[in-house]
Backbone:
């Protein structure tokens, strides 16, 4: 009887380890899911894993667990974010992966609650994002890379109208308006919106610092540029060009060199 019971237990354990307790897929290198139904502030980490499988790369930093999904089958030659622009303070914050893969998705999960606080999905093969707004943002990216700033601004405004909480589109628009000194007041308004939506983004805070400088507010400029550099050190220490860019603006805000030297 004991022998039969032992054999039965072994069979049960084997079945458990074979089938698992829940339909969670194993880690994989190719993205075959598009998290288009993710709701910021509601969707949980478990739901992300059940949808996309275990993330090939995870980092626990600051307030977040960052889940990184990317297509390892082939890298693409696209420059980081908005080309030279995206590598700086503004542009699409594609973080460490930044266009090096055909597909990628980044999810920021609150460590305490397990709730998704930010995410995006980009497919560079067909230039599509997880929703219409993100797709329009990627189209604006192409316009900027081609030097078509006016067209990019129009697309960014369209992306914002499609999703008022797309802080990447809001930040990119603010950055263009501020960095190119097109409309300093509008730049400040958009930059404040982006930081309000996702305050832990170093890109958003860097842009806000620049916007304050364009509006002759050195105190707030220094505050947000310093915060941006602290957030870069915490979340994205390898974003060298963006870090150097914000350091240069911080020196300018601190009066360490003049406008002509900037």
Residues:
């Amino acid at each position: 009887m004991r022998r039969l019971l032992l054999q039965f237990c072994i069979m049960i354990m084997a079945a458990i380890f074979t089938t698992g307790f829940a339909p969670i897929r194993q880690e994989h290198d190719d993205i075959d899911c598009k998290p288009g139904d993710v709701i910021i502030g509601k969707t949980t980490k478990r739901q992300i894993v059940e949808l996309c499988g275990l993330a090939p790369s995870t980092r626990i930093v600051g307030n977040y667990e960052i889940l990184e999904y990317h297509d390892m089958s082939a890298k693409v030659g696209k420059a980081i974010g908005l080309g030279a622009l995206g590598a700086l303070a503004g542009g699409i914050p594609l973080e460490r992966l930044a266009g090096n893969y055909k597909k990628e998705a980044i999810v920021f999960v609150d460590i305490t609650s397990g709730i998704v606080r930010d995410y995006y999905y980009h497919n560079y093969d067909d230039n599509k994002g997880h929703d219409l707004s993100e797709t329009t943002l990627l189209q604006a990216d192409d316009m900027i890379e081609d030097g078509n700033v006016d067209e990019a601004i129009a697309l960014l405004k369209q992306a914002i109208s499609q999703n008022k909480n797309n802080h990447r589109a809001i930040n990119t628009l603010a950055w263009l308006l501020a960095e190119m000194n097109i409309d300093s007041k509008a730049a400040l308004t958009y930059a404040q919106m982006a930081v309000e939506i996702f305050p832990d983004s170093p890109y958003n805070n860097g842009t806000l610092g620049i916007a304050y400088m364009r509006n002759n507010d050195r105190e707030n400029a220094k505050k947000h540029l310093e915060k941006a550099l602290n957030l870069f050190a915490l979340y994205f220490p390898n974003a060298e060009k963006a870090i150097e860019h914000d350091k240069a603006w911080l020196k300018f805000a601190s009066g360490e060199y003049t406008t002509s030297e900037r």
